[in-house]
Specification:
single chain, Mitochondrial Import Receptor Subunit Tom20, Chain A, Beta-clip-like, 10% strand, binds zinc ion, SET_dom, protein transport
C-alpha cells in the first residue's frame, strides 16, 4: 500500500519536472528562433483547423443521426387508444433498455424506441426527468436532439397547411417596413390571386368573441353578437336565464364550447359564484379580455376533447395555433392575477392537469394576443353610437371609430398587418361576429393584404403614430407615414 502510494507520488513528481523542462525548452526556442515561431504558428493553425473539421464532422454526423432517428421514430403511426398506448410504451422502453445495453452501435436504435415511448406518455416532462436519471448521456443527447428537432419540424411545417387554401391567402415572411432590404421579417398575409375592389377575400369565424360592456343593457346574442331586435324566437340558457341567444343553434354551441364551464346557474356553488364574479367584472366595464380568455380556454378544451376523440393527434392544437400569432409583452397587473386564479379554478379544476396549464404566464400571453390581434365587431343594432373601446380599458383593432359591438379573435385575420392606407377592410355582413374581409383597392396575387388597426380619417401622422405605439407598440412605416422620396 505504502509503496504504491509512494510510487505514484514519485511518478507525478518526475512527470512534473519533465514537463516543466519541456516548457522551458519550448519557451527558449520560441523567443529566440523566428523560423520556429512561424512554424509554430502554422502548426497551431493547422491543429486548430483539424480540430474544427473533426468537430464539424461529428456535429454534422450527430445532426444526421438525430434527423434519421426522428424520422424512424415517427415512421409508424402512434396508437391513439389508451390500452394500445400503454402496451406500446412498455414494449418501447424495454426494447430501448436492451438496445443501449448492447453498446454504442445500438444507441441510435435505443433512442428511437425511447422517443416513441415519450410520444405516447401522458406527461412527457415527467418522463424526461426519469430518462435523465436512468439513460446514459450519449443516448439522452440523441433523445433531446430529437425532441428539439420534432418541435422545429412541427413549427416549420405549420404554414404548409395554414391558412386553409379556401381562404385565398397565404402566410409569408415579409420585410419589415418600407425598406425592402431590411433583413427584419414579420409574418403577414399575401393574396393567392388577384382581387378587384369590393371582392370578398375570405370569410372567417372567430375563436372567441365578447360584447362590449357599453351594451350590457342592450339585447344581443351572447354567442354571435347579433342584435336580438326583430328576432322572433330568441333562446336563453335554461340554467342561468341570464344569457340570451339569437337561435337555439347559438345557445347550444355556446353551451357546448364554453358556457358549460362559465354558467352562473351551475349546480356547483363555487362555479356559480366565480362565474357571477366574472360577469360582474365585465358589466362594471373595466376589461373585455377576462371573459374572452375564459371563453377561449373553454373553447380550446372542447376542441381538444373532440380532436382526441376523432384521433386527429397529428393536427395542431388550438393553443399551438394561437401561439403562432404575435403577442404584446404585458406586465402583470394585480387584477390579472385575480382573473387567472379564478379561471384556473373555474375551468382548470374540471379537467385534470389544466389548472397548472392555466398559469399566470399563459394567461398574460393570451391577454397579450387578444390586445394585439382582436378585431372590433360591428354587428349593428344599438351600437351605432358606441365608440371603439368605449367603457373598456382594453383596446382592439378598429378601423372605424363608431358602431363597435364588441371584439373577436380570429386566427387568420390576426396576421393582417396594419397600414394607414390599407387594401382590405373587415365587414360583418350577417350582423354577427363572422368576419368578411373585402378588398378596398385592387390587390395583385403575391401582394401583402393589410387592414387599418385604427380610425385613420384625416388625422395627422403624429396622432396616428402615437395611437399605434400606445395600443399596439407599433411603429408604422406605411406609405402615408413614410412617403417614399426619390
Ligand atoms: Zn347568435
Ligand atoms: Zn347559463
Ligand atoms: Zn401608417
Amino acid at each position: 500500500m505504502k509503496n504504491s502510494t509512494l510510487a505514484a507520488l514519485i511518478a507525478v513528481g518526475t512527470l512534473g519536472v519533465a514537463s516543466l523542462g519541456y516548457v522551458f525548452y519550448f519557451d527558449y526556442k520560441r523567443r529566440n528562433d523566428p523560423s520556429f515561431r512561424r512554424k509554430l504558428k502554422r502548426e497551431k493553425k493547422k491543429a486548430q483547423k483539424a480540430k474544427q473539421e473533426v468537430e464539424k464532422i461529428t456535429q454534422a454526423q450527430r445532426e444526421i443521426s438525430i434527423d434519421r432517428a426522428l424520422t424512424r421514430a415517427l415512421e409508424d403511426p402512434l396508437p391513439t387508444d389508451v390500452a394500445q398506448k400503454e402496451k406500446m410504451f412498455l414494449e418501447s422502453v424495454s426494447l430501448g433498455e436492451s438496445l443501449f445495453a448492447s453498446g454504442e452501435t445500438k444507441y441510435e436504435d435505443a433512442a428511437v424506441h425511447f422517443y416513441r415511448a415519450l410520444k405516447v406518455y401522458p406527461d412527457p416532462i415527467e418522463l424526461i426527468t426519469i430518462y435523465q436519471k436512468t439513460i446514459p448521456g450519449p443516448v439522452l443527447t440523441i433523445i433531446m436532439g430529437m425532441l428539439a428537432r420534432d418541435v422545429k419540424r412541427r413549427q416549420e411545417s405549420y404554414y404548409d397547411t395554414f391558412p386553409d387554401q379556401s381562404m385565398q391567402v397565404k402566410a409569408a415572411g415579409l420585410p419589415k417596413g418600407a425598406d425592402k432590404s431590411d433583413p427584419k421579417f414579420h409574418m403577414g398575409l399575401v393574396a393567392a390571386k388577384d382581387f378587384a375592389v369590393g371582392d370578398i377575400i375570405y370569410v372567417e369565424k372567430p375563436e372567441t368573441s365578447q360584447l362590449t360592456p357599453a351594451l350590457k343593457d342592450a339585447e344581443y346574442c351572447e354567442f354571435c353578437l347579433k342584435p336580438l331586435e326583430g328576432i322572433e324566437h330568441p333562446a336563453a340558457c335554461e340554467k342561468c336565464s341570464l344569457f340570451k341567444y339569437c337561435s337555439a343553434a347559438c345557445k347550444d354551441t355556446a353551451y357546448d364550447e364554453y358556457h358549460r364551464f362559465l354558467c352562473p346557474g351551475s349546480e356547483d356553488a363555487s362555479t356559480a359564484s366565480s362565474a357571477k364574479e366574472l360577469c360582474q367584472s365585465w358589466a362594471e366595464g373595466k376589461e373585455l379580455a377576462p371573459l374572452m380568455i375564459a371563453k377561449f380556454f373553454g373553447h380550446m378544451i372542447t376542441t381538444e376533447q373532440k380532436r382526441q376523440l376523432a384521433g386527429q393527434e397529428s393536427d395542431y392544437t388550438l393553443w399551438e395555433r394561437t401561439e403562432h400569432t404575435t403577442t404584446l409583452l404585458l406586465p402583470g397587473k394585480p387584477t390579472d392575477q385575480a382573473h387567472q386564479v379564478r379561471l384556473a379554478a373555474l375551468i382548470g379544476q374540471q379537467v385534470p392537469g389544466l389548472e397548472e396549464f392555466m398559469n399566470e404566464e399563459r394567461y398574460l400571453s393570451m391577454k397579450g394576443r387578444i390586445l394585439r390581434n382582436a378585431i372590433a365587431v360591428r354587428s349593428g343594432g344599438e351600437a351605432a353610437g358606441v365608440a371603439a373601446n368605449a367603457a373598456s380599458e382594453d383596446y382592439v383593432r378598429s378601423p372605424a371609430d363608431a358602431g363597435v359591438t364588441g371584439a373577436a379573435l380570429y386566427l387568420v385575420s390576426s396576421y393582417l398587418t396594419h397600414s394607414c392606407a390599407p387594401n382590405a377592410e373587415p365587414s360583418f355582413l350577417d350582423h354577427d361576429h363572422v368576419l368578411t374581409l373585402k378588398a378596398t383597392r385592387p390587390i395583385q396575387a403575391g401582394e401583402e393584404i393589410t387592414m387599418s388597426y385604427i380610425a385613420v380619417g384625416d388625422r395627422p401622422t403624429p396622432a396616428r403614430q402615437a395611437e399605434l405605439m400606445e395600443k399596439f407598440r407599433l411603429h408604422c412605416t406605411c406609405p402615408l407615414c413614410e412617403p417614399v422620396t426619390e
